[in-house]
Design brief:
six-stranded mixed beta sheet; Arc Repressor Mutant, subunit A; D-Maltodextrin-Binding Protein, domain 2; WH-like_DNA-bd_sf; three-stranded antiparallel beta sheet
Length: 307
């Protein structure tokens, strides 16, 4: 006999944990924040454990809650899927698709290509979500995820592509240095990007690592404007502010339009991206068609390398 688990409280906890916010969970569940807090307290009383550490206006998961969040989310997903199938809406399930990628990959690489997929599959109800942190990515509820780290989630993980890191500048800035790439690397302003999460095995270089690899010494290697988003750093480079270490996936459109040009060789180590999807995809025609289209798109891309 199953223990009578308070499912409403479980849903409130999972939504608050996934969104890292009681108010966002309340919006998602169409209830008040007070109701969500009440349900969480009920679940804590039921389990006799603390689920959150509350600090001012912020909530953090306890280690025990964090360790079980993924399984709880997956269990709720299974219930939702079963209810859809029980209600005879399998056609809706086949035509629905949600995809997540980092904010920069979404805006700079995926979005310019989505028109092609949507023209091919006009019946698909498509949803795109973006994330800023690894924690946010791994707790988001989406059908597919594109990540540049080896995720340990319980799902199918497939290598998708590898990208290069290459110094780029605006054509005007390159012309200002007379097209002398060595002079650009030695004297031009260095634009830095502070990543919100660790890339795989530390493979992606920063300026000290890149310049050291090619034997260029600069006393000001850590100076220059810093950005916490690749998109704004790329905009700065296009405006001639300085040179950036561009990720080939993200600067593809800017290079194609001639807004950025390469000024040196790529860093010798590439970064790998992975495609995360559910183990079971039977009947999910939209999911499979998107995976097929994405792999086909990668194969025809000159700026990335197929794994």
């Amino acid at each position: 006999m199953r223990k009578r688990v308070p499912l409403n409280s479980v849903r409130a906890f999972e939504a608050a944990a996934r969104n890292a916010s009681v108010s966002k969970a309340a919006d998602e569940l169409c209830v008040t924040p007070t109701a969500v807090s009440h349900q969480i307290r009920q679940l804590e009383d039921f389990l006799q454990v603390r689920l959150f550490v509350r600090r001012n206006n912020r909530i953090d998961l306890t280690p025990e809650a964090r360790a079980n969040l993924l399984r709880i989310s997956q269990a709720l997903d299974l219930i939702d899927t079963a209810m859809v199938e029980l209600g005879g809406s399998q056609e809706d399930l086949r035509s629905q698709l949600s995809v997540a990628a980092s904010t920069s990959v979404t805006s700079l690489w995926l979005m310019p290509k989505l028109n092609e997929y949507m023209a091919r599959e006009p019946e698909v109800d498509f949803s795109v979500r973006s994330f800023l942190t690894r924690k946010e990515a791994e707790t988001q509820d989406t059908d597919l995820k594109i990540c540049n780290w080896r995720c340990e989630m319980d799902c199918q993980v497939e290598p998708l592509l590898e990208e290069e890191t290459i110094p780029v500048a605006s054509p005007a800035l390159k012309a200002r240095f007379g097209g002398d790439d060595r002079a650009l690397l030695s004297q031009a302003t260095l634009v830095h990007v502070d990543r919100a999460y660790d890339v795989q095995e530390g493979a992606e270089p920063d300026w000290p690592r890149y310049l050291g690899e090619f034997g260029i010494a600069r006393p000001d290697v850590k100076h220059g404007p810093r950005f916490n988003q690749s998109g704004t750093a790329i905009d700065a480079a296009k405006a001639g502010v300085g040179i950036i270490l561009g990720r080939s996936l993200l600067i593809e459109e800017a290079r194609r339009r001639g807004e950025l040009v390469a000024i040196s060789e790529p860093y010798p180590v590439r970064s790998r991206y992975y495609l995360l999807s559910p183990w079971r995809t039977e009947g999910r025609t939209a999911l499979q068609s998107f995976k097929d289209w994405l792999i086909e798109t990668v194969r025809h891309n000159d700026h990335v390398h197929v794994v």
